[in-house]
Automatic annotation (TrEMBL):
It comes from Natrinema soli. Coiled coil: none annotated. Pfam families: HMG-CoA_red (PF00368). SUPFAM superfamilies: Substrate-binding domain of HMG-CoA reductase. Signal peptide: none annotated. InterPro entries: HMG_CoA_Rdtase, HMG_CoA_Rdtase_cat_sf, HMG_CoA_Rdtase_sub-bd_dom_sf. It comes from the Archaea. This is 3-hydroxy-3-methylglutaryl-CoA reductase.
Amino acid sequence: SNADALAEIIATAALAGELSLLAALASRHLASAHEDLGR
């Protein structure tokens, strides 16, 4: 149904965001960006 398809899309987007965040943490891009911006 449409609700199942929407739930799958939302779950996929959330998983992609989590993977992106973990990749940034692992490669230290997140920390260096925060240092550069003073945040």
